[in-house]
User: Fold this.
Amino acid sequence: MIQTELFNNSPVDLLYFERQALTNGFHLVAGVDEAGRGPLAGPVVAAAVILPAGLHIEEVNDSKKLSPDKRERLFDVIMSMAVSVGVGMGSPELIDRINILQATRHAMLTAVSQLTPQPDIILIDGISTIESAIPQKTIKKGDSLSLSIAAASIIAKVTRDRLMRELDTIHPGYGFAGHKGYGSAAHLEAIRCLGPSPIHRLSFGGVREHVSCPSS
Assistant:
């Protein structure tokens, strides 16, 4: 794992970090971000995106700042224009076993491993690196500061939202299609009434209180 220090933290625009990478000899830049660290149910999903050098896609920004319709539209644009896109997931079982941070890092590493070709450098949203030999740069609020990371945030968010809508049909009664697994009042009440589903994170507060322990 290599943490590069060839950057300063004064971005001018969403291509600032990508241009710095090119200046420092990195030609294939991958942005990495995740969606779903906070929900009580469903996987955490990470995406890695390599965009063509110098490409700017209008309206691409932190997925949380975009409407669902705009995210869906930009998802298709990014998928059509990207050099490569990878997606990784950390299941609820993995989250319960190794914790949400490690499951997120696992999902990110999986997403990067799916990229073809492999990137020369990885720009990661947040402060946590992944166990990769590829040089990497963590960027706080990177989904608002780097186009590549913003694109990854959109891919991760749309992928997860689509999955949660599918899981709503498999596990009805919890409202997954609406709240996407987050701890809304209606979701917490459904857990109280129905008990946790197979896709709930049993180690999370709001769920673990309702896990039935077998009698000894």
Observations:
- The CA atoms of residues 84 and 117 lie 7 Å apart.
- The chain has two domains: 2-164, 170-208.
- The first helix runs from residue 16 to 23.
- The domain at 2-164 is CATH 3.30.420.10 (Nucleotidyltransferase; domain 5).
